[in-house]
Design goal:
globular; alpha/beta; single chain; seven-stranded mixed sheet; binds S-adenosylmethionine
Length: 278
């Protein structure tokens, strides 16, 4: 799936995203864009503001933020996956008020009080110490600056059942990240709100939305699931089991096909918002 330019990459979750960067958000399933659009709307990003997009990936948030702040504003995306940075920087090269850089979400090397808004869509649950990361994001905000994160919550049981086919092959750390809607602080809205409060953020609140993903057929579902972070699940399946598991996934996904063959799954997405004290 990945191109010759994206074989290696950093250790940990960013390495997977480095390898899938060429297909990420590019297989004809509107998914990261709609999730990001709600985050940008909830953050109420305004013309002229300076926005940091942490774990920017292929720019689902960054492109929307770039438009919202306009040429008088500034949008910076950082990501630890070199290929994500390379491709997103190329895509947004025509926008002089936008920058994309290699950077660690856990410790962004940026001046204090230099942003009005920090956004992180589907990133926080990958970080080893989410509270420390949030505290670092708080420090780069101006007083009263806003922060917003999106995380997964309730999952369509039919989709969950497909994910569960992979569980016997996955290490615990991956189960925690991918199934973040079920365990630890990411298991509830209160849990994620607690992370923001522990990082010293105030006015913390949660908004929930249900996002739909539609696939042409079961093979399109497989293509989608291999094109983003879920690729790591496929990579953990032993080679001698891969064909059988592929067939099981196709069967399970196909069982949800409508009369036109299309498959639509729902995913609840949680938006947790807070601010630096004024
Ligand atoms: C699920 S993707 C989300 C990307 C983008 N925000 C979106 O909504 O499409 C997670 C992103 O976080 C990045 N990431 C993971 N760990 C990171 C870290 N420690 N620092 C910066 N980026 C990181 C990955 O490389 C990947 O691009």
């Amino acid at each position: 799936m990945a191109t010759a330019g994206a074989q290696d990459g950093p250790p940990g979750p960013a390495g997977v995203f480095h390898r899938v960067a060429d297909t990420y958000d590019a297989v004809g399933v509107p998914w990261f864009g709609p999730i990001a659009a709600h985050l940008v709307a909830e953050l109420d990003v305004r013309p002229g503001e300076r926005v940091l997009d942490v774990g920017c990936g292929r720019g689902a948030v960054l492109t929307r933020v770039a438009e919202a702040v306009g040429p008088e504003g500034y949008a910076l995306g950082i990501d630890l996956a070199p290929r994500m940075v390379e491709l997103t920087a190329r895509d947004l090269a025509d926008l002089p008020h936008v920058e994309v850089r290699l950077g660690d979400a856990s410790a962004p090397d940026l001046p204090p009080r230099s942003f009005d808004v920090v956004a992180a869509s589907l990133v926080l649950f990958f970080l080893p110490d989410p509270v420390a990361a949030l505290a670092a994001w708080r420090d780069v905000l101006v007083p009263s600056g806003r922060v917003g994160v999106s995380t997964f919550s309730g999952q369509d049981p039919r989709w969950r059942a497909i994910d569960e086919l992979f569980f016997p092959f996955l290490p615990q750390a991956m189960l925690d990240a991918r199934t973040s809607g079920y365990n630890g602080p990411f298991g509830s809205g209160e849990g994620v709100e607690g992370l923001l409060r522990s990082a010293g953020l105030v006015g913390v609140r949660t908004v929930s939305r249900t996002i739909e993903a539609t696939f042409r057929d079961a093979e399109h579902y497989v293509e989608f699931s291999r094109s983003h972070g879920q690729r790591a699940m496929w990579d953990h399946v032993p080679a001698n089991t891969l064909d059988d598991l592929h067939d099981e996934v196709v069967r399970a996904a196909g069982a949800s096909a409508g009369p036109d063959g299309r498959i639509t799954f729902q995913q609840d997405v949680r938006y947790t918002l807070g601010a630096r004290e004024g």
